[in-house]
Amino acid sequence: DQDEIDRKKLRWLARIDQSLSDPNGIVGYVLPEIIFGQGHPYAKPSGGSGTRESVQWMSRDDMIKYHQRFVNPSNATLLVVGDTTLDEIIKDLDDVLGNWKDHASFENINLDYAIHNVSKPGKVYLVDKPGAFQSLIVAGQLMPGVGSEDEFKITLMNAVIGGDFTSRLNMNLREDKSWSYGVRSRVSANIGPSPMLVFAPVQSDQTIPSIQEIIKEYE
Predict the structure, then answer these.
(1) Which residues contact 187 (CB under 8 A, 6 or more apart)?
(2) What's the CA gap between 209 and 217, in Å, rounded?
(3) Which segments within the chain are labelled E, that is strand?
(4) Which of 2, 33, 73, 183 is the most exposed place for a label (fewest CB within 10 A)?
(5) Which residues contact 217 (CB under 8 A, 6 or more apart)?
């Protein structure tokens, strides 16, 4: 129903606006495209809500075409949990889904996860938020993804440098200098290149020294 779509879109846009009032929401909105480059499958906002533009211009016909393109039996997995048998559940599923056919427009999508933008020297992007009571530093770098020969080494390295409470970054910026309540790093489990990200909320007057300490630990 179009009225339902309009109502949902208003709530969706409000959720995007609300996320952009939060430092983590801002990072999730701008960082993916900075790291992966425009047009990459992972360059979309990481929060999952899309952009204001994509939501505003989405029509009912767009939703129907998307549903027909991707929601198809050949692209589906059914998980059944309960006190039943395979014979029983197949009969029930045949009654409900027996006539479910692939739409003619269905196609398998092969996404290109390779990085085509050339690596550049380190940069600092500043998002000014007047009145913020602290700074949020997010440092990012692309690493080999899941299944690479260095996956175990990268996971271990991340645990040592920022993945745990006793890791170097947290012991430096929190325990030693008291500039932060907590610093963590993580490596995403992506197909293709995976970002290793450091999240460091720090007191504003120690923003530059904190960036310098993060760089020093990684070097």
Answers:
(1) 143, 154, 155, 158, 194, 195, 196, 197
(2) 12
(3) 135-143, 184-187, 194-202
(4) 2
(5) 161, 168, 169, 172
What letter would DSSP give residue 141? E
Q: How far apart are CA 89 and CA 96, in angstroms?
A: 11
Contacts 24+ apart (CB under 8 A), 199-202: 199/24, 199/136, 199/137, 199/138, 200/136, 200/137, 200/138, 200/139, 200/169, 200/173, 201/23, 201/134, 201/135, 201/136, 201/137, 202/134, 202/135, 202/136, 202/137, 202/173
Tokens 């390779």, residue located: 114
pTM > 0.90: yes or no? no
Q: b vs e for 184-216, b when ≥16 Cβ sit within 10 Å of the residue's Cβ?
A: bbebeebebbbbbbbbbbbeeebbeebbebbee
Tens digit of each residue's pLDDT, the chain (219 residues) = 999 999 999 999 999 999 988 899 999 999 999 999 888 999 999 888 888 898 989 999 999 988 888 888 887 899 999 999 999 999 999 999 999 888 765 566 778 888 877 667 888 999 998 888 899 999 988 988 888 888 899 999 999 999 999 999 999 999 999 999 999 999 988 888 899 999 999 999 999 999 999 999 999
